[in-house]
Amino acid sequence: MEDAGLRTWMDQMGNVHGRVEGMNPSADALLIGSHLDTVVDAGIFDGSLGIISAISVLKVLNITAKLQKLRRPIEVHIEQGPVLEGIGLPLAVVKGIAGQTRLKVTVRGSQGHAGTVPMSMRQDPMAAAAELIVLLESLCKRPKDFLSYDGQCNGFAVESLSGSLVCTVGEISSWPSASNVIPGQVTFTVDLRAIDDMGREAVLYELSDRMYQICEKRSVSCTIERKHDANAVICDTELSTQLKSATYSTLKRMEGEIQGDVPVLMSGAGHDAMAMSHLTKVGMLFVRCRGGISHSPAEHVLDEDVWAAGLAILAFLETHL
């Protein structure tokens, strides 16, 4: 950043800042960036791509733009999904970031010997947990089958969940976790996301109600804890329009002709822009990644796609000079 002409410092939380002083102190400021940290055993592009793109663009511009009145953060990030690769385009504008809820589900039954307790007499929390997980998958794949009441449910259209509702059980454990023991307790996590917050809450209500019914039927107990909630974020319309225009002109300049319009995607992953939305309007640009793979050492982005992202942000910034 210093090589690009930025003044740098680190705050008490460990955030690294780079600032270019502006010619007009009263002008609105633009914040461009992402995150330097990532998950364990991840790739090299998650987060860092947005940092490098921002530094490179400022170095090319060699401008002064005072970061005094924060209004419009821009984040460049790999898509972390397969859509852009599927349609054959390197960039997309993000229309919003899905809200998310994380649950911890604990199912308690009757621990026993694997060889001596008849199947008809078991209170097996593992079998119950398996049925709960299949219920979760069915509910997220076909929410209409569970939520539809004349096309509406609690003030939202069930159709609003289409394409954005996803759910994952990423962690499961049992006690005492022995091959010859019917477990006494099983714990698993649920990660549920959707762009419609009311729809997400309706799914959670339905899921919890049906989980309790299944556990009662199987004579096991069940507790459901909400461990995390984050509301959906809708990207600023004006900012997204400007990013879309800059992206279109960049792709046209690079490829000559592009088929159709610049894609506009919803993000199922959480991003730094999500946290910044409480302070200001936000916008995001997605970059194609190979196979839609992220949070993995196999994560990969083409050099020409990184170049395209940099040029698009450069074109966007030039409209604000």
Automatic annotation (TrEMBL):
Keyword Manganese appears in the UniProt entry: yes
Keyword Signal: yes
PROSITE patterns: ARGE_DAPE_CPG2_1 (PS00758)
Compartment(s) where it occurs, according to its Swiss-Prot or TrEMBL record: Endoplasmic reticulum
Gene Ontology MF: a single term: allantoate deiminase activity
Domain of life per record: Eukaryota
Residue ranges constituting the Peptidase M28 domain according to the UniProt record: 15-63
Domain Peptidase M20 dimerisation intervals: 99-215
Pfam family of the protein (one): M20_dimer
Reactions the enzyme catalyzes: allantoate + H2O + 2 H(+) = (S)-2-ureidoglycine + NH4(+) + CO2
Gene Ontology CC: endoplasmic reticulum
Keywords: Endoplasmic reticulum, Hydrolase, Manganese, Metal-binding, Purine metabolism, Signal
GO terms (BP aspect): purine nucleobase metabolic process
Subunit structure, interactors included: Homodimer.
Family listed: Belongs to the peptidase M20A family.
NCBIfam families per UniProt: hydantase
Designated name of the protein: allantoate deiminase
Organism the protein comes from: Vitis vinifera
